[in-house]
Design brief:
The protein has 415 residues and is of the alpha/beta class. The protein is 68% helix and 6% strand. It has 17 helices and six strands. Strands 2-1-3-4 form a four-stranded mixed sheet, sandwiched between helices. A two-stranded antiparallel sheet has the order 5-6. Strand 3 and strand 4 form a beta hairpin. Helix 7 runs antiparallel to helix 13 and helix 9 runs antiparallel to helix 16.
Length: 415
């Protein structure tokens, strides 16, 4: 066992000292900041193009022009057009970017806009404004009091309560599924990103040693099974370091939310609806699933004879990972079906399907913990089988396909 930990320590420290590892840690934040910057610049450009440079002509009564000029001040300049003919002429000569025709009570309106204009404005917002003016005009014609107007225009008081129905019993323990669903979908995408990264690391670790024949010297000192387990432990350690780093960054971001003035955006979400049980299950399932796929990637990487064949070999694992990734988006409308209930407990699938079922209140925290326990059992079995396959194939340099070698290994084992 000591040799296993020596291998784990060497592999872990080698990667931890690599600049590529730290780039992997920081790359998501770098690209996120670049995306935010591009979005900010695009937003500013849109705001600038939608401001006073846009000119809208109004074909209607003078008071309507004056009112719309006041209401649409933040979106565009407004001017009066004597009639429809004059408005069309002004649009043709590009003196205005659009014109609006209105009847007296705002019940009918037409917006004609030049799609080739250099400036733009929000047509939907203008539609909402006209609808609001129609409502106000209708209310004014009824000669209602201020209180009656307030009661008429006030939104309905609608309260939503989520319940869980099991075995003909209604439970009030269910929570709003919107936040949980968003987190579950985000976790599916993040898991896939982590998988693509760590499958590449795993393939590189094993493929490089085998392709350069260094593995022969290493296995002379360390048994193949211990060598395999040591590498898996090291890669799991790298994953834990990355998750811990992200946790520290997240905590720091929350602490700095107040001083830097973005706390209002954080508080827009009721994070209490997420629950520690749900968040914990999502993290545990994700971590165990990534380890399962890492073990599979290590098996396929051990079957190549040349280092350049590693990406082709480990791509099989990514194809397998695509299945639960796709099913997680398909299962939101059928979370209670027998198929998705069963699949949400199966290792390699549960990390995507169980959070989705929990998000829509189709599964409990206990179900998630059971799925995690099954993942751990599967991980122990996978490591035991994979280390044996690794020991039989890591010194095999023939050019057979990885799947063919895998089947051949099981055939020899069973014969």
């Amino acid at each position: 066992m000591t040799k296993t930990w020596i291998v784990a320590k060497n592999v872990f420290l080698k990667n931890l000292k690599s600049p590529a590892y730290y780039w992997m840690l920081l790359a998501p934040f770098v690209f996120a900041l670049i995306g935010i910057g591009i979005g900010f610049i695009a937003s500013k450009a849109t705001d600038n193009s939608a401001n006073p440079n846009s000119m809208i002509g109004i074909v209607g009564q003078p008071q309507q022009t004056a009112l719309l000029k006041k209401v649409l001040k933040s979106q565009a300049d407004v001017r009066s057009e004597a009639n429809l003919k004059q408005a069309k002429s002004a649009l043709a000569k590009q003196k205005i970017d659009a014109y609006i025709t209105l009847n007296a009570d705002y019940s009918k309106a037409q917006i004609v806009t030049n799609s080739q204009a250099d400036t733009s404005f929000n047509v939907d917002s203008i539609k909402q404004t006209i609808t609001s003016l129609k409502t106000q005009t209708a209310i004014a014609s009824m000669h209602l009091s201020a209180g009656q107007v307030q009661n008429l225009t006030a939104p309905a008081d609608v309260k939503t309560r989520y319940v869980s129905v099991k075995e003909s019993k209604i439970s009030n323990s269910a929570v709003d599924s919107g936040l949980r669903y968003g987190v579950s979908q985000a976790s599916v995408i993040l898991i896939f990103i982590f998988l693509s990264t760590y499958i590449q690391i795993t393939g590189s670790e094993i493929g490089t040693e085998k392709g350069s024949r260094i593995i022969e010297s290493l296995l002379a000192a360390v048994p193949a099974r211990q060598h395999f387990v040591g590498k898996i432990i090291a890669i799991a350690g790298l994953l834990l370091v990355q998750l811990a780093a992200y946790a520290v960054i997240l905590i720091a971001a929350i602490i700095l939310a107040g001083p830097f003035g973005y706390a209002k955006y954080v508080n827009m979400v009721d994070w209490s609806q997420l629950g520690f049980g749900f968040a914990g299950v999502v993290i545990l399932l994700a971590f165990a699933a990534i380890l399962l796929y890492i073990v599979l990637a290590a098996v396929f990487a051990s079957m190549v004879s040349r280092q350049e064949d590693v990406p082709k070999s480990t791509s099989t694992v990514m194809y397998v990972a695509l299945i639960p990734y796709a099913l997680s988006f398909m299962g939101t409308t059928a979370a209670n079906s027998l198929f998705f209930k069963i699949m949400s407990f199966i290792p390699l699938f549960s990390q995507s399907l169980m959070p989705m079922r929990m998000a829509v209140n189709s599964a409990s925290t206990v179900d998630g913990l059971i799925a995690f326990a099954l993942q751990l059992a599967a991980l122990a079995i996978f490591i035991w089988l994979a280390s044996g396959i690794y020991a039989k194939n890591v010194l095999n340099y023939d050019d057979g396909k990885p799947l063919t070698k895998l089947f051949r290994t099981f055939k020899i084992k069973n014969s």
